[in-house]
Write a structure and sequence with these properties.
It is a single chain. It is built from 10 helices and no strands. The chain is mostly helical and 242 residues long. Helix 1 runs parallel beside helix 9 and helix 4 packs across helix 8. It is globular, with a radius of gyration of 16 Å. The two termini are 25 Å apart.
């Protein structure tokens, strides 16, 4: 699992979608769904945290101006992680593939998915509702959260793709921390397994963030497309089989 987490952390740091690899691996190992979700959040939190540190060192975001978004995303994810422990997520399995396919199509055809900043469609305050909703989704279900943050930060906030990816990691680690708190209090985490995977995820996160900060949109864009399409295919396949 630790070796798998290295790949998961690398993919998550660049484009998101690492859960496409880790979640099936945990379920295949025999973990019940809620334990798999909670334990996966531990390694995801650590790997994304390492990537966030690397992106901040590269100067791709500042924490101060984003404190309101951090607070809203945290609250949304905490609520989502509490709710999912009581409500089945079957309905989301019907909606998420369509949303992720839309993300992939937008990424392919939008001329704005590059490193150039552009005019924002909503300001920082206007984005709070979007960020809170994505945070709730991450706590409740999770797959594709990185893509949702990245695409909305580019399309709505007007950030260049590399800067959007850096800020995505900050918001994603926020939602992961909130989710770990909720799942931990609910007894839905295997801590030893989670932290052993975290070692691999942190290594992958550091490497992924290093490559993304150096190579920018020419690396992030194709991986974002691939992660979105791959995750969509995985969810659709699982839905038809289920």
């Amino acid at each position: 699992m630790t070796a798998t987490a290295v790949l998961t952390g690398f993919i998550d740091a660049i484009a998101g979608g690492g859960g496409l690899i880790m979640m099936p691996a945990l379920l295949f190992a025999g973990l019940p769904p809620h334990l798999a979700l909670g334990t996966n959040k531990v390694q995801s939190m650590c790997g994304t945290g390492m990537a966030t540190f690397r992106y901040r060192r590269a100067g791709l975001f500042r924490i101060g101006p984003n404190k309101p978004a951090i607070a809203v995303v945290f609250a949304g994810a905490l609520a989502g992680a509490v709710v999912v422990q009581w409500i089945a997520s079957r309905v989301l399995a019907l909606i998420v593939p369509a949303l992720l396919l839309a993300v992939a199509v937008y990424t392919v055809f939008s001329p704005r998915m590059d490193d150039a900043d552009s005019h924002d469609r909503v300001g920082a305050r206007g984005y709070l509702l979007v960020g809170g909703a994505i945070g709730f989704y991450d706590g409740f279900f999770g797959p594709g959260t990185g893509q949702f943050f990245a695409v909305t930060l580019v399309g709505l906030r007007g950030l260049g793709l590399t800067r959007a990816t850096g800020l995505t990691k900050l918001l994603n680690v926020t939602s992961n921390v909130a989710s770990v708190i909720a799942f931990g209090l609910g007894g839905k985490i295997l801590w030893l397994l989670g932290f052993s995977m975290a070692l691999g995820s942190m290594t992958g996160g550091w490497l992924g963030a290093h490559f993304a900060a150096r190579h920018g949109a020419r690396l992030i864009r194709p991986l974002l497309i691939t992660a979105s399409l791959g995750l969509t295919g995985k969810l659709v396949w699982g839905w038809f089989r289920g």
